[in-house]
């Protein structure tokens, strides 16, 4: 009874404001997300600090930094609010009229595969839905999912914590790309020729897809010479023109050589294919909006 009376004395809207503050870590951005004035959000933060007996957010460079107490609250707060939303909203989700921001994490490779078709769908069917895209290492993306800082993560993940679940969006294979002038007419790339050439390596801080290529070479007791290492693949095909450089990359990263004047050949050794995954936290399983977005993303990556 005492707990019930205590809840009646609390404005539960404060928890929604706290969720936005923990996510945005900035007063004006949280106010914009909540459709509130900045002074009103600042006043709510003061009430939250008094209610919880903790500063919660401390001013730092570029915005607020959460205290240890705030970080500990983030996950249970997100789960509690999601449960409340599920109770109040049921499974109803009207994409055409909903105004909502979804937070996704993906690399530039993932963005190229997903965003063009997805955004065309959103602008037509769900104009009130906005996307906030971020990128980090694979472990950091999974940690952000667990902490409720993002809604979905897209990428290649070797192992998932128990609370996270994934859908395979598509299976990807590798291709070698090079300037056609660097091969004799009709020449097929051999392993010896592959290892003799300098390579462009596209790899994030945690290895990314390049790890699969080097792991396959290691099984053969071979290594390659990397002449250029960069963290994003967008410019990589352009680096091949007029050089003897070779790029081994996911096939979808080089959608075609029309206008790029590239020669594409299968790698001269076996590289295991990999699944490109869409990962979510189990707390969102009752969220009809997340379910709709997952289906829209799956449709976006299918070939026309």
Provide a quick synopsis of the model.
The protein has helices at 2-8, 13-24, 27-34, 38-52, 68-89, 108-125, 138-146, 191-196, 210-219, 288-300; strands spanning 57-60, 63-66, 100-105, 129-134, 152-155, 164-172, 174-178, 199-202, 226-230, 246-250, 263-265, 274-281.
What does this structure look like?
- By secondary structure, the protein is α/β, with parallel strands linked by helices.
- 39% of the residues lie in helices and 21% in strands.
- It has helices at 2-8, 13-24, 27-34, 38-52, 68-89, 108-125, 138-146, 191-196, 210-219, 288-300, and strands at 57-60, 63-66, 100-105, 129-134, 152-155, 164-172, 174-178, 199-202, 226-230, 246-250, 263-265, 274-281.
- The chain has a 5-stranded mixed beta sheet, with helices on both faces. A 5-stranded mixed beta sheet has the order 9-8-10-7-11, with no helix packed on it. Strands 1-2 form a two-stranded antiparallel sheet.
- α6 (108-125) links the parallel β3 and β4.
- α2 crosses α4 (38-52).
- The longest helix is centred in the first third of the chain and has 22 residues, at 68-89.
- The radius of gyration is 24 Å and the shape is elongated.
- The relative contact order is 0.14.
- The model is unreliable at 1-5 (pLDDT under 50).
Task: Describe this protein with a few key phrases.
five-stranded mixed sheet; 304 residues; 12 strands; alpha/beta
